[in-house]
Amino acid sequence: MTAIFKKEFRSYLHSVTGWIFMAVTVCFFAMYSSVYNLAYGTPYIAYSFDAVLILFFITVPLLSMRIMAEERRQKTDQLLITSPVSVGKIVLGKYLAMAAVFLIPLLFFSFLPFFLSSYGTVPMAENFVAILAFALYGLAAIAVGLFLSSLTENVVIAAVLTFIVLFLTYMMQGIESLISTTGNMVTKILSAFDFYTHYGTMIRSVSDVAGNSRLTTVFDLTGIVYFLSVIVLMLFLTTQSVQKRRYTMSVKTLAMGAYSGVATAVVIALAVGVNFLAVALPAKYTQLDVTTNKLYGITEQTREIVSGLSQDVNIYVYAAQESADGVLAQTLERYQELSKHIKVSYVDPLQDPNFAAKYTAEELSQNSLIVETDKRSKVVDYYDLYETQTDYATYSQSVTGYDGEGQLTSAISYCTSDDMPKIYFIAGHGEYTFDSGFLAAIEKENIAYETISLLEQEAIPEDAKCVIIHAPENDFSADDADKVIAYLNNGGMVFLTTEYVQEQQSNFERILSEFGMTLQRGMVAENNTANYYQEPFYLLPDIEAAGETAGLTGQHQYIMSPFAQGVTIPENDVEGMTYTKLLTTSDKAVLKSGKQQVTTYEKEEGDLEGPFCLGVKAQKELDAGTGTLYVFTSAQMFTDYYDSAVAGNNKQLFSNIMGTIAGHEVRVSVPVKSYEVPMLTVPIRTAYLYRAVFMVIVPLGLLAAGLAIWMVRRKK
Question: What is the pTM for the complete model shown?
Answer without folding.
Answer: 0.68
